[in-house]
Amino acid sequence: MGAREDHATRPIDARAALGSAVERETWQRIACAPGLREQLGQIGELVEQARTRPIAELPDDLYGEFERTGDRGAFESRYFQRRRALTALAVAALIDPDSGTELLADLVAAICDEPYWALPAHVARDGLDPRETIDLFAAETGSALAEITALLADRLPHDLLRRVREEVIARVIEPYERHSSWWEDSPSNWASVCAGSVALAAIQVCPEDRVRAQLPRLRATLRRSLDGYGDDGVCVEGYGYWRYGFGYYLVAVEALDAVFGPDPNGEPGRAAEAARWPLRAFLSGRTLVTFADTWLEGTADAGLLAGADQRYGDVGLPTADLTDTEVVDECGRWALAVRSLCWHPQVTSRVTPTGTDQAPRWYPDAQWLVVPEGAHSPIGFAARAGHNGEPHNHNDLGSFVVARAGQLLVADAGRGVYDREYFGPRRYDNPAAGSHGHSVPLLDGVRQAEGPSAAAEVLGAELDGEGERVTVDLTAAYPHPALTRLVRRVERRGEEVTVTDALTATEPIAMTQRFITLVAPNIENGVVHIVAGAARAELRYDPEASVTTGAFPVGRGSFPIAVHHVDIGLPAATEIEHTVRVSTYSV
To answer: What topology is assigned to 16-229+247-265+334-348 in CATH?
Structure first.
């Protein structure tokens, strides 16, 4: 009996789970790495802010603001200020073993005092007590506290270490053991972040047998998260969700493999292609393929990509101008920041090829055509098919993007303002998610429908070495009673993109071809002019078409930035075929 009890309470090896983060030499190399100067400078700024400002207050009435008004920003700005400070202070303490940790200890205690770790916007999904809700950020908080206190156990008060363990078990481990959550079967970032964070926390605070009991379930959810990518590796949720979703997947499987060995069910083959997606997502300079909920420009995390390259090979590193200089992101995600530093090639001394992938590609699972500016094309160009029931979906079938010299000319303006309505029944009233905010047709003002049945049929996708063309049938996307067929063909040849829409109907339909741009367009002599930075575009159309311009409001219920649209309207008819030519130039 005694031997059985000893086995049941045997601690898990934190050194194996945290890898080189437990080694003093790693932090010495981090401190001296020339390629990490800007990242460490950001950490230093966050530490200074934490030292000169009081810990952000999180009063109860602020937590209720989301329920009252739908606003997320007031509470979340303070919540994430705490998490950013937590990560920065912990990293700074690991870099300098002689520094004090009193402020870090105070912040850890304050986070333990928070009534709830789950965000107000997420607590209603499972119908659980908010204290037992495992959302993205409750799970992240649990893993961050567990790992930070494991790494700095000899420099923090013993009663605080005990309290962290109790809080993590009560708020993350026990709720996970008692309840199933919707995200466990979700092919999205929720699955990898939540399951990955639970696994990281459990490794640090639970005995081995307790973790092993949940291991099959955790690993099944991590595998399920990869179903959001397809075999072509595209992150259809948006570029920023790769670092988040795949980042936590990578961190978790590395930790689990180190402690328990590889998953006996094997790792899905699509993981390797998913690892390669970031360096294929840049269109022109820092301009991204902006489909779904993503920002317009981005950078790539050299440390996480180096870790992915170590695991999968043929991933590569970003060039210096595309390398992320902020290791602590807007939410202060500890698990990603610490691995980014420890896996950085200048810390591991591992040589990895540098550069972005400039080859034009058709991604058959996502049904995206992506053509980076570079050796194969003088412009950046992307077009999409797919369906309107994807994670972080926008109703944007047939949408396309044209970029040049680092500027979006014909744009997809990316994510909207995150509020209650944006993730609720009225999501597609928001132009950032609805088809009226994308470069797609409107039929008598009728927009695209939502859901997987609103799907594009790919009639052809050709890359012939001289250019690219994708042809899609959009009929199923438009709930117009008179519509018989709507086909869009988007083609790039050299510096020009042509967009042709062909419509047939049982009754006359007035078709409007909408084009989205981030700068105010100008119409002169029957030509639409778009000038952005060192690039410009001209839109040419048939004389019988009418042209109007407009702009969307900025703020809640819309885009966070100014967004304009150009509407090219055709006279109502039962048969319409119209081509718009988008010619690009360097200014």
So the answer is: Glycosyltransferase (1.50.10)
